[in-house]
Design goal:
Blueprint lengths: L14 E6 L3 E6 L3 E6 L4 E2 L2 E2 L7 H15 L8 E6 L2 E5 L2 E2 L2 E9 L1 H8 L4 E2 L2 E2 L8 E8 L2 E2 L11 H6 L5 H24 L2 E13 L2 E5 L8 E5 L3 H7 L5 E3 L1 H9 L15 H19 L11 H15 L2
Antiparallel strand pairs: 1-2, 2-3, 3-7, 4-5, 6-7, 8-14, 9-12, 9-13, 9-14, 10-11, 14-15, 14-16, 16-17
Helix pairs in contact: 1-7
Length: 316
């Protein structure tokens, strides 16, 4: 079975600090550069699952890199280079404590809340009588607070501004960027026979300017449906064929795990882990439209350390 990178402990030249997230490890270099390593960890329901998924980090990093390049003309972003298949380096930005989630369709957690009677989502009033996977007349933005630990929480635009989490000007700039990014992502997906259903974006500031940061349009941050068959399945009330991490969430739900107290993560057999890896590679090839080339994986950490160190040495 292929190896997976589930933890990192690098010490790059000029390194000031490191932040270990659910999936990404972010190394701050000097005062201006961030090295973001997309590990093979996988999380669901805000819980890091016990086994890593081979090549998942490479899939996420390479998809994000391609979409950052494909949207750089409409939104400034943090990316400077991708010195390794699992690494992006970029400008150090002060991240906003909000994730901008935009939804074109009623599905996932929004559908589960709606099904259970919720009609007000992040300050947006939803009409009665909607069905699972139904398209909204216009995409809706449903932000969440970005929690250091535990679950992110839904929040309205008004509350974000009233509590001073983000200023009115900055929030409205993020909102405009979010809509522009979603429109571009929708166009790119349509050309691949896909529907970009919902996604999340994160933003930060550098020298007073708002930048797009982190990942974009990956299967961890986004949900895609296949366009072919969408309408027929919707009319029949059948599950949509989709490209996203939702298949992992569904597997967990079927095994009585949703991240709640007292619940136990089901056993992840080698066979299951391999199947998830294959699915991520399939996602890559559909979303990007290119064959996935597996990076050398005998000693992933040594490869990353060498590639990043050489890039840092050559940047000045």
């Amino acid at each position: 079975m292929s190896k997976a990178l589930t933890r990192t402990d690098f010490n790059f030249k000029g390194q000031k600090s490191v932040y270990h997230g659910k999936v990404r490890d972010v190394y701050s270099i000097d005062d201006d550069i961030m090295v973001m390593v997309a590990s093979d960890r996988i999380s669901a329901f805000d819980v890091i699952l016990p086994k890593g998924i081979p090549f998942k980090g490479q899939v996420l990093n390479q998809i994000a890199s391609k979409f950052l390049d494909a949207t750089a003309d409409i939104v400034p972003n943090w990316k400077l280079a991708t010195p390794d298949p699992m690494v992006t380096v970029g400008l150090k930005c002060e991240g906003f404590r909000v994730e901008m989630i935009i939804r074109g369709y009623l599905t996932g957690s929004a559908w589960r809340d709606y099904r259970d009677g919720c009609r007000n989502l992040c300050g947006i009033q939803l009409p009665e009588g909607m069905k699972e996977n139904q398209k909204f007349p216009e995409p809706i933005i449903t932000p969440t607070t970005k929690a250091e630990e535990g679950h992110d929480e839904n929040i309205s635009k008004e509350e974000i501004i009233a509590r001073g989490i983000v200023s009115k000007d900055d929030y409205e700039q993020m909102e405009a960027y979010t809509r522009a990014l979603f429109a571009r992502g929708t166009e790119i997906a349509a050309a691949k026979g896909l529907i970009l259903v919902d996604t999340k974006y994160e933003f930060g500031k550098n020298n007073g300017k708002v930048y797009l940061i982190d990942e974009i349009h990956t299967p961890d941050s986004s949900r895609y449906f296949y366009a072919d068959g969408y309408q027929e399945k919707f009319e029949k009330g059948e599950p949509q064929k989709q490209l996203s991490k939702e298949f992992v969430r569904q597997w967990l739900i079927e095994h009585d795990f949703m991240g709640k107290a007292g619940q136990v993560v089901p056993e992840m057999t080698d066979q299951y882990v391999e199947s998830v890896s294959d699915r991520y590679i399939e996602l890559y090839e559909h979303i990007v439209g290119e064959k996935f080339d597996k990076a050398e994986s005998q000693d992933i950490a040594a490869r990353i350390e060498k590639n990043v160190s050489e890039w840092l040495a050559g940047r000045k």
